[in-house]
Each structure stands twice: as C-alpha cells, then as structure tokens.
Write a structure and sequence with these properties.
Helices cover 31% and strands 22% of the residues. It contains five helices and five strands; from the N terminus they run E-H-H-E-E-E-H-E-H-H.
C-alpha cells in the first residue's frame, strides 16, 4: 500500500459510521473494547450537532489511501491559562493495521499541527498508553515531549456522579451563556 495516494481531509457527516468503526477498532487494539459505548448518534451530535455553550466541538480528520478511509485523528480545543491561548487536544489517533507503516500516522499529526498553527494554538497535547511502543517511537521522532512530571486523573461513572451530587447551584451564569 503506497503512501503517495494518501490524503487527509476533515470528516463529513457521512463519515460518522467509519469514525465509529475506527473507535471500536482502537478500543480493541487498546484491549478496552468493552469500555466503548459510543454510538453513531452520539458521535454525530458532538461532531455536527448544534454548538452547546461550554461544550467543545469535536473535530475529526480522515486519512485515506486511494479514496478508502484508513485512519483518523479526533480532536478538540482546550485552553492553557499559562499561555492564555487555545490548544489542541488529540483524543484519538488511529491507523488501520493494513495501513500502518505507510506514513498515515505522521501525515495526520502534521495536518493537525498545521491546523493548530493556523488557529494560533499554543500547543498540541495527547496521551498514549505506556505499552504502545510504536506510537511512543513515532511521537519521539517528531519532537514530542513526554510529560513525566504530570499524572493524569479521571473521574467517571459513580465517582463522577458522587462528586457532582455534592455541588451546589452555581452562584452566577457563566459569561459564555449570558445574552
């Protein structure tokens, strides 16, 4: 499979089933398929539904070889208070097994970096599983720096609900929701 015919484009609404297939394949690769609860409807809502104040829009790049989708990069904007600039958080980067080694992963990262620069972002960030040596090798080769001094935390399911139940009502309406 030659990488000369590779193209990167933004996902369209018609790509939602393909994105979900890639998400499931990634879940299987990461040995966590049982944790994938996403549906086409859910992905469509976050990628193409109406903007909701306070919620980031999810964007997606599709990598194709000879017109066939072979990978994706799903991302959204975050914000750095230290830089006072937006950044891009790469949630998922995936290339199908048959297309690995063709350069699609690096092409997706290059395109995402170009988007970040064009949009004035101060940085691009992502996480990688410690055992994913091929991905770590790729990230190191492009000059990405592992942040070993940071530990990521996650609240989910019952712990998230329990903490939320302890919150009172906000004291005022957020500025981005005022009219």
């Amino acid at each position: 499979m030659a990488s000369q015919a590779a193209t990167i484009r933004f996902a369209t609404e018609a790509d939602v089933p393909t994105v979900l297939r890639f998400v499931r394949e990634l879940g299987e690769y990461e040995k966590a398929l049982d944790q994938v609860v996403a549906t086409e409807t859910m992905l469509h809502e976050h990628m193409f539904g109406p903007l909701v104040p306070g919620r980031a829009r999810v964007e997606c790049l599709i990598a194709e070889i000879d017109g066939e989708p072979r990978g994706f990069a799903l991302f959204f904007h975050n914000f750095s208070t230290w830089l006072a600039r937006s950044g891009i958080y790469l949630e998922d980067l995936y290339v199908t097994p048959a297309a690995r080694g063709t350069g699609l992963g690096i092409k997706l990262l290059r395109q995402l970096a170009a988007i970040a620069v064009q949009r004035g972002c101060g940085r691009m960030e992502w996480a990688v599983l410690n055992w994913n040596e091929p991905a770590i090798k790729l990230y190191n080769s492009i000059g990405a720096t592992p942040l070993s001094e940071w530990t990521y935390y996650r609240l989910k399911a019952e712990a998230l609900a329990n903490l939320a139940a302890q919150a009172g009502a906000p004291e005022s309406t957020p500025r981005n929701q005022m009219r």
